[in-house]
Amino acid sequence: MFSFFKREKKPNTDAGKLLAAILVVYPSVQSVTYDSKSDMLELSFALKGKFSHEDFEKFLSHIAESIETFHHIEGLGRAKIELDVEGVFGTCFLNVRREMSTFTCRELSLLTELAENYFGENLIEETDSEIADEDYIMAQEDYLEQCLNNIRQLRIEGRLVGVREQERVVIYAR
Fold it and tell me: Three-class SS of residue 95?
């Protein structure tokens, strides 16, 4: 009856800022989801064109090997990472799920770089009409690292989804 008495869950601001910063710094990432139950972050890359099952198998093998090598070099041991693809023809989505406990900005940069190098112009990137200067991007990367560290220290409840909506970034609490 009186809806103003209902308490709605408010999303943690650090988690929302993290998702927004990922979408601002990495234009190839189309959406980001953080799920507190599994403590996983999911990055989705959109691809255009026709791909075979073998194309994706080859890429998934390449990215898994690259990430494993990166973890070995960084001394992280085996980290939980899941890769899958939705769709095959037209527009499809490459989804990368990674546990948050050891996830770093350097790994995020590596993931996006691997996708950009492998898929090239078939990777859909949302670029601003005004190109951000390098100092702004570096400040956002520093901010992103700070948000990652804050999330590891705090217990965040719920599920947050960040998506691009034209030239804006929108964060939803689910």
Answer: strand
